[in-house]
Amino acid sequence: MSESQAVAFVTGAESGIGAACAGALAAAGYDVAVLYFHDIDAANKTVAVVTAAGRRGITVQADVADEAAVEAAFDTVIAALGVPGVLVNSAGLNQSGVPVADMTLVQWQRLIGSDLTGPFLTSRRFVQERLKAGGPGQIINISSIHAEDARAGGADYCSAKGGLKMLTETMALECAGAGITVNAIAPGMILTPMNAKAQADATYRSSLEAAIPVKRAGTAEEVAALAVYLASPAAAYITGTTVTIDGGLSLVLAQGA
């Protein structure tokens, strides 16, 4: 990894999987731009983890669904750290839980904006910068097992993640010749703030974990370790794929259990 590639841009890095990815990438030798939406205190804690690993870290605020904000965020990162060599798209919202018949257009657009339009906007600028730099790069999209497994009340979320899967594959085809790999990670049940109820209610958590073949939820750190691998030279021959990390849950869901 050259110095020109040793910068990672992680969206949604103030908490959960994004924060874990930022810390793990710093431990692997990357300077990290921590993009957050509204919680500056949490973002600063992530930067503290980055700097504790001996790397440079900055916070950048943006709504990933806002084109101008994303462009400005990249300008800030490039000026402060250099052109990113790794992009982790982790920012996103959970499903609204609203059936299609009751879902408003605002609810639909809000989630599609964060979980699909956001990765498009950040990836587009990232690819533009890597093409100008003339070097390789890695895009890692945090998807979900629900890109392929529908669930009631999740029309917005499942549609966004399904779209992200196809965006990943399309970009992989377009960018392979430039040495840019594009992959996705599809987590199952991971203990993050997005799954706050599972963390707070032991009985509820146990009922969910009973359906998972390995009988436990995953951790954000396990997802982050996979992201670091996909960002490494060892994964240079992997592109256009989605790696599932769910303790075998998707196998159970595929059986209709």
Automatic annotation (TrEMBL):
Q: Enumerate the SUPFAM superfamilies for this protein.
A: NAD(P)-binding Rossmann-fold domains
Specify the superkingdom: Bacteria
Record-linked PROSITE patterns: ADH_SHORT (PS00061)
Q: Which residues form a coiled coil?
A: none
One annotated GO biological process: monocarboxylic acid metabolic process
A GO molecular function for this record? oxidoreductase activity
Q: Which UniProt keywords apply?
A: Oxidoreductase
Q: Name one Pfam family in it.
A: adh_short_C2
Q: Belongs to which family?
A: Belongs to the short-chain dehydrogenases/reductases (SDR) family.
Name of the protein: SDR family oxidoreductase
Record organism:
Sphingomonas paeninsulae
Task: Please spell out the taxonomic lineage of the organism that makes this protein.
Answer: Bacteria, Pseudomonadati, Pseudomonadota, Alphaproteobacteria, Sphingomonadales
